[in-house]
Every structure is written in structure tokens, then in C-alpha cells.
Design a protein that fits this description.
The protein is built from twelve helices and eight strands. It has an eight-stranded parallel β-barrel with strand order 1-2-3-4-5-6-7-8, surrounded by nine helices. Helix 9 links the parallel strand 7 and strand 8. The longest helix is centred in the C-terminal third of the chain and has 20 residues. About 40% of the residues are buried.
Amino acid sequence: MPRGGVASAGKRLKLALEAEQPLQIVGAINAFAALQAERAGFRAIYLSGSGVASASHGVPDLGITALHDVVTDASRITSACQLPVLVDIDTGWGGAFSICRSIRELERAGVAAVHLEDHVSQKRCGHRPGKQLVSSGEMCDRIRSAADARADPDFMIIARTDALAVEGLEGVLERAGQYVDAGADGIFAEALTDLTMFRAVCESVSQPVLANMTEFGVTPLFALNELKSAGVAMALYPLSAFRSMSAAARRTYEAIRQDGTQASVIEGMQTRSELYDLLGYQDFERKLDELLGKEIEDD
């Protein structure tokens, strides 16, 4: 525990896991989205590698972005929001020493946990064909490197396996057990297609299991009570808000371009007062007036 008795980010995530089963972890592509998630009552948030690639850089999630891109976005979120953050680090951006550096940089950025996957370095989306995996031994080396690098023992290393599409359910179960033995604090079994698969994974390992409820993929959008019945500990919604935001932005741009005014979409917009309320704008304004010695005037 850090000085002053304040729980570390990793510890806060573990406390959230104890408080909520399954723990809903919702994606936030930037600091403002994280504040909205916090206001909505979530206990943990997620920074997606795909979100960093598409939202911050306008490129597909095909291993194009690097450690510093993710650290930049993660740091902005942890600076603005108190919720523990789980971060997607793909394959760790290299070999053992690169993975160590990734963990140290993200831990310094205030991140609570990462998930590391068993794809080859030139990765593919988990819900697309053509996936290639490294050997379970190489993935175990990745996990051991990550676990050895952390300074906070509560910082969580979650191992993701995409083995279902390549090796079937037996491959998922075998790899999950090996990953836990190598030091993984949780298992992310990607692209499972029914609840019996999730139940089998949950029953096969002692560590918490994460289910990815991403839209438009191969995994059905199971309700929280269904995931709970299968033993799932974490339900991930990586890009739900981003997809909604993107569709709303597209409609707004089209309306302004076609109509010459935003009048037809104004009802769907966040108001200025809602924005100011979320940011604590007036508190900042009062502090500024206090520092400048000005008389404070409320609207």
C-alpha cells in the first residue's frame, strides 16, 4: 500500500472485484469518457488497444501503435479519474525486456492491470479470422516477465488466450491452466461462443475469468446474470460507448453538412451545463477568481 494509506490502483481493482460480481469494466477512449463512466456508477474502466489505434491515431488495430501511445492515453485517464484502469497491451511490444518496460511504464502511469495476449507479434483482431498464436511456453515467458516487472504485488496481469479458433476448447483450457501456473492473476478467454465454454474455463482455473462482451463479434451479448451463472468474474464492454459516440458524431456531421444547421440533432447533444457540471467548471472558476483576488459572481 502506498504512503498515506491510500490503496494502490491494483488494490482498488481487487476491491472492486470483491464488491461486484461480475465486475462490469467499461471502455473509455479518453479522460472525459472516463469521467462519464465514473459518473454512471462503474467501479472500473478499460483502455482498449483498438480504441487507442482508432480514436487517437485513426489506424486499424493491427499492431501499428506502440507503448508510448498507450501510456499517453492511460496517463490522461488516470490523471482525471479515480477508477482503476485495465489496459490492453497486446503482446507486450517485444521480448522479455520490452514487456518488463511496458509494465513499469504503465504502473508508473497509475494503471491497475493489463492484459497480455498469446498472439504472434503481428497480431489480428480477436474476432477476425487468420489468427496465429505463439506456443504456450512463449506466452508463459511473457507472463513471467510481466509479473517479475511489477513493483506493486496487487498490479494484475491478466492473460488473454485466443486459442478457441486455433486449438478448440481443449486448447483454451490447457493454455489457461498453464498461464495461471506461470503467474497470471486472471484469464481472458477471447471469442468464446456460448456460456458452457465460459463455465468450463471458470471451473478449470482458480483465478478470475474475464468475458469480452464486444459488439458485432462472435460472442453473444450475454446479460450480466447469465455471465454470473457461468462463474465469470469480469464483464468487459471495450468499445460500446465509443461506437455510440462515433455514430452520433457521424449523424451530427451529416446533418450540419446537408441542412446547413445543427437544429435537427440538437436534442441529442450534451448541454453546456451538463458539460460544466461533469468537469466541475464553476469550482475551477471560483478558484481562479480566488487566486486572482477577484470578487466571485455566480450566474
